[in-house]
Amino acid sequence: MDAFPLHRSGSGSEISRRRLLHRAGMAGLAVAAVNACSTEPVAAAASPPSSSVVLCRKAWGAASARPGGTPHTLNRMAVHHTEVLLGNNANAPARLRQHQRYHQESQGWIDIAYHLSVDRNGNIYQLRDPNLVGDTATNYDPTGHFLVVCEGDFDQEGVTAAQLDGAALAFAWAAQQFGIPTDTLAGHRDESPETTCPGASLYAHVTSGDLRSRVDAISAEGPVDLPTICGPEADAIVADIEAGIR
Ligand SMILES: [Zn+2]
Question: How far from 217 is each of 168, 175, 224, CA to CA, in Å?
C-alpha cells in the first residue's frame, strides 16, 4: 500500500527469495552484484574507524520530534532493518527523511521509530532520543529496548562489513552509555514472529553471534568514543554521503 511498510507481516523468506530472483532476472548483473555481498565471507570483527561519529538530526534534515513520548530505562538492544531496498548508499539521508515523514504522518508516532541508524558504508545517524521508547508496527513492546536500524531490506540485499561494524559500534556505545548487557542483543523477529525483520542476510549475523562478537570486541577496547556532531563538519559529511563519496 505504501513504500514504507515497516516490518509488516506476511513477507516470508520464500516470497522474498522469489522476489529477489524476479528482480535479479529483470535487472541482471547490477542486482547480482549488490546481492553478492550476502554470500561473500564478511571480515571478522575489526576495529572501528577512529573518526566514527554520529551525524546529528539537523545534519540529515530531520523534522522536529513531536511532543510527548514515553521515557524508559534501557535494558535490552535490538537490531532492525528498514525493509526498503537501499540501492545506492547516496540515498541514505533522503531515506531517513522519508521514514521519519511516514512514521510521523502516517503512523502518527512522535518521531522516527528507532534510536540510531547505520547506512551501508557504516555512517551512523542520530534518530529518536534514546531515553524515549521506540515504536514498532508489529505486536511487541519495545520499552527498554535500544533500537538500531540498518538502512536496507536484508531479505533482498546483502549486509556489508562496514554496516555491521557501524551497528556494532552503535550497540557498544549504548551498552556503555546505558549499562545494557550485550547478551540481550536480538533481532526484531526474536521479539515478534510476525516479521522477518531484520532480514535474512543481517539476521544471520545475529544468530551466528557475529554481531555480538563485534560489539564485545569494541567494548573490550575500553571506553567507546562516539560523539554526536552537528554543524558544518556534520553537514559536510552528509553532503559527501549524498554525493556518493563517503
Ligand atoms: Zn524491525
Answer: 9, 12, 11
21, 38, 179, 187, 207 from 17: Cα distances, Å: 6, 13, 38, 20, 19
Rounded Cα distance, 133 and 70, in Å: 6
- d(CA 133, CA 73) in angstroms, rounded, equals 9
Q: How far is CA 238 from CA 3, 24, 33, 64, 159, in A?
A: 23, 30, 25, 18, 21
Per-residue b or e along 108-122, where b marks 16 or more CB atoms closer than 10 Å to that residue's CB: ebbbbbbbbbbbbbb
C-alpha cell at 38: 550476502
Q: How far is the centre of ligand 1, averaged over its atoms, from the C-alpha of 92 (Å)?
A: 17
pTM of the model as a whole: 0.81
pLDDT digits (tens, 9 = 90+) for 15-44: 343 343 333 333 333 333 333 333 334 444
Per-residue pLDDT reduced to its tens digit, 78-100? 999 999 999 999 999 999 999 99
Distance from Cα 85 to the centre of ligand 1, integer Å: 14
Compute, in angstroms, the gap from residue 46 CA to the centroid of ligand 1: 25
The grid cell for 151 is 538502512
- DSSP-based three-state secondary structure for 186: strand
Please tell me the distance between residue 41's alpha carbon and the centre of ligand 1 in angstroms.
24
In this structure, are residues 67 and 104 in contact, taking their beta carbons and an 8 Å threshold?
no
Contact criterion met (CB below 8 Å) for 171 and 185: yes
100 touches 54 (CB < 8 A): no
Which residue's entry shows cell 522516527? 112
